[in-house]
Specification:
4-stranded parallel beta sheet, binds norvaline, 5-stranded parallel beta sheet, 12 helices, alpha/beta, Rossmann fold, about 40% helix, binds phosphoric acid mono(formamide)ester
């Protein structure tokens, strides 16, 4: 297998083999949780500290990383930008250099992708993307772990329909899904398409893994026969001012029981959470029997443990 990348900033920083290995390890860590044997990797981060820097709110990412580091024997150090000098204008480059003298990895949730790129360029410690405006790659790891379990252990040949905003979550799903041989279809309102460069990259990865990518404004066509239907909020963090205007534009893209009925008979419903019932998804769907959203949330823990073991375990 190729050497593990120094940072995890974009879903396609991994190659297909590394992605499969991470998902396999995530499954083994899930099965081993609570055990004291070597399979739990309980000392993988012994003596190491991981900074968890949040410039936006978080429930799942913050808690799953904190628990992951602790269960791997390391010390998690959660920090909000408001309590760092970063919040008072200290540069990202200086923050990266200084944190690298203290900690063994930096997990960060921030705004523009250029902020995390600059952090990684100036850090000697590995940097992990815990969500930017462009990508949410750790979410995609948990999403694929969840989908693979729902598909009986096989991702290649699966069809995932993402309905809604062409946002960070859609971008990382496009890239990670394409790497893994999943046909990712994105249905979005006009004007809210995913980033063209990410779609092009996903198309190239899909061609290599033997699948395809589809981007459309037709939600019913995207969902038709899909094995998973996925949605996310219509207004992401930082887009609060647009939230009201988006309600009207996105209305036809709500995952209703009727839209979901076009999916395969055994399709699952996925959502990264937090959810807004009655906006992007109806309660009957997210709280119904096909929903796997809480498994998906739990898998953040297992998938990120796998990531930390590979990123730090042998270094
Ligand atoms: N899905 C996700 O990243 O949730 P949080 O914003 O709560 O971390
Ligand atoms: N697209 C959402 C995901 C939240 C986990 C946002 O960026 O706010």
């Amino acid at each position: 297998m190729a050497e593990f990348p120094p940072h995890f900033l974009r879903a396609d920083d991994l190659d297909a083999e590394q992605l499969t290995d991470l998902l396999d390890l995530a499954d083994r860590l899930q099965a081993a949780r609570g055990s004291t044997g070597p399979e739990a990797h309980g000392d993988a981060l012994a003596g190491r500290t991981v900074a968890l820097v949040f410039e936006k709110p978080s429930t799942r990412t913050r808690v799953s990383f904190e628990v992951a580091v602790a269960e791997l024997g390391g010390h998690p150090l959660p920090l909000s930008s408001a309590e760092l000098q970063l919040g008072r204008g200290e540069t990202i480059a200086d923050t990266a250099a200084v944190l690298s003298r203290f900690v063994h990895a930096i997990v960060i949730r921030t705004f523009g992708q250029e902020r995390i790129d600059e952090l990684a360029a100036n850090a000697t410690a590995p940097v992990v993307n815990a969500l930017t405006d462009l990508e949410h790659p750790c979410q995609a790891l948990a999403d694929l772990q969840t989908l693979r379990a729902a598909r009986g252990g096989q991702l290649a040949g699966s069809v995932l329909a993402y309905v809604g905003d062409g946002n960070n979550v859609a971008h990382s799903l496009l890239l990670a899904g394409a790497l893994a041989g999943v046909e990712v279809r994105v249905a979005h309102p006009a004007g809210y398409a995913p980033d063209a460069a990410i779609v092009a990259r996903a198309e190239a990865l899909a061609a290599a893994s033997g699948t395809e990518v589809a981007v459309t404004t037709d939600a019913v066509a995207a969902v038709g026969g899909a094995h998973a239907v996925y949605t996310d909020v219509w207004a992401s963090m930082g887009q609060e001012a647009e939230a009201e205007a988006r309600l009207e534009v996105f209305e036809p893209y709500r995952v209703t029981p009727e839209l979901f009925s076009h999916a395969a008979a055994d399709a699952v419903f996925l959502h990264c959470l937090p959810a807004h019932r009655g906006e992007e998804v109806d309660a009957e769907v997210i709280d119904g029997p096909a929903s796997r959203v809480f498994d998906q949330a739990e898998n953040r823990l297992h998938a990120q443990k796998a990531l930390l073991v590979r990123l730090l375990g042998d270094r």
